[in-house]
Amino acid sequence: MSKFNKITPSFIKKLLTLAGSDAVFTQAERLEKHARDFSQDIYFLPEVVVMPSGSEVVSTIMALCNKQRIPVTVQGARSGLTGSAVPVHGGVALSMERFDKIIDIDEKNYQVIVEPGVITEHLQNVLQDKGLFYPPDPAGRGYSHIGGNVATNAGGPRCVKYGVTRDYVLNLEIVLPNGEIMWTGANTLKNSTGYNLTQLITGSEGTLAVVTKIVLKLLPYPHFNLLMLAPFHKAEDACAVVADIFKSGVIPSALEFMDKETIAYAVRYVGSSPFVISPDDEALLLIEVDGNNMDMLQQDCEKIAVVLSQFDVGDILFADSEAQKNELWKLRRNAANAISTLAYAMVTEDTVVPRTKLPDLLRGVKKIGAELGLKTSNLGHIGDGNIHFSIISDEPVTEAWRLKSIEGKREIYKLVQSLGGMLSAEHGIGYLQKPFMKLFFKENHLSILRGIKKAFDPRGILNPAKIFD
Ligand SMILES: Cc1cc2nc3c(=O)[nH]c(=O)nc-3n(C[C@H](O)[C@H](O)[C@H](O)COP(=O)(O)OP(=O)(O)OC[C@H]3O[C@@H](n4cnc5c(N)ncnc54)[C@H](O)[C@@H]3O)c2cc1C
């Protein structure tokens, strides 16, 4: 029996009073829209969708739901890939899309205060116009919300040089499950004052509190960048070269990997390619350097070219115009979408290992795929040791394929664990990765995580069934 209560007409009436008649939706099409995220693998209907504006309104809604034991799932743009924003127990889908204001850009302190529903790329563009830089750039930044990025501690291509979302979050306004509003820290660059609640909420996948305001640290926008593309005859070499690039003293601002299977989907999806990939090439690296001194960037590229030349690499392409750079990035940024659109089924994952273990990981994924008769593809932020492998079917899937894909996924995670890696680098655990937490953490670790959840949310109403049971 569920520990949660069902939503009644009198509860809806109270919600209408608290949030306003234009903010509460019970129509079937609306519930349907809020029943999935981008993973497409799970589907659970909420009983009502609420789109509040303002922290005070969120506070009253949370207090009501807490009192009546109604589950609440916070939703950003629902571009997550783990089912973390899917309302597994029904109840309220709390959509943050009306929290869409950039509240203050503090150019002197290099900070921005922003509401969670602002689209990441929009925020970046507004800041760039003022010469300011917010680096974390998940490939889905054209639609993901900054609040979703904070809740998942999102990464992206540029994180290899600049760090992930967590490295930029200074302070958060949150609403606790009981409705109390609080700030987690201060708008300061350093803070060693007790436990760090800001970093705890960042990456907590909406299980501890609702984020209603975000203070982010910014950098000056780098003036120049150079982009090169290196095709490799052996995909494992493209993995092995990564540690050597860093050893040469260069920190690229992006170091991205696509294997030939991924490239084929991306080219079909985008419709054109700015380069010709030879049938002999198994993978490519997209390597970007950025900064404010063009001579130094050229020297960095030369150093990288020397490292690449020690491997079995094809002709290196240097993007010679902004248009060509954009075309190359378009291919990379659309790669995941390409596979999910063109394949019949795709199980995609977010593994991370120490850089020197990348060749072992890639070799292992291919071996496990071959042994189980599963097609795999690999892409990712390889400079961070982060490979998104996918198990793909180009035909309608059978139950046998589904079971095999689960087995393949488990075998790959065992390999990742043995290589000193982790279950998720940037997407989070959500609902879909939850069964694998025990491969990576002992019971004492999980018990501390459960204790933290209980301290924030004793009645367990916020995003239940995510990360752990
Ligand atoms: C094509 C594609 C490419 C992607 N590339 C990347 C990538 O490069 N790097 C990367 O890290 N991710 C990537 N992602 C995954 C996804 O875009 C990120 O996880 C993103 O951060 C999710 O943001 P969202 O607004 O869609 O959040 P949602 O999916 O709506 O929610 C994600 C989680 O955040 C919680 N949440 C949302 N808003 C709040 C809030 N205000 N308060 C509390 N909790 C909240 C939800 O409850 C949920 O647990 C990609 C996805 C796609 C589809």
Taking all Cα atoms into account, the compactness measure Rg is 23 Å
CATH topology of the domain at 102-220: Uridine Diphospho-n-acetylenolpyruvylglucosamine Reductase, domain 3
Share of helix, binned = 25-40%
- CATH class label of the domain at 102-220: Alpha Beta
Number of strands: 19
Indicate the mean pLDDT: 96
Strand content: 15-25%
Catalogue the unreliable spans: none
Oligomer: single chain
- The coarse silhouette is globular
Backbone structural class: alpha+beta
User: How large is the count of helical segments?
Assistant: 16
End-to-end C-alpha gap: 15 Å
The largest sheet is: 8 strands, antiparallel
* Distinct small-molecule ligands in the complex: flavin-adenine dinucleotide
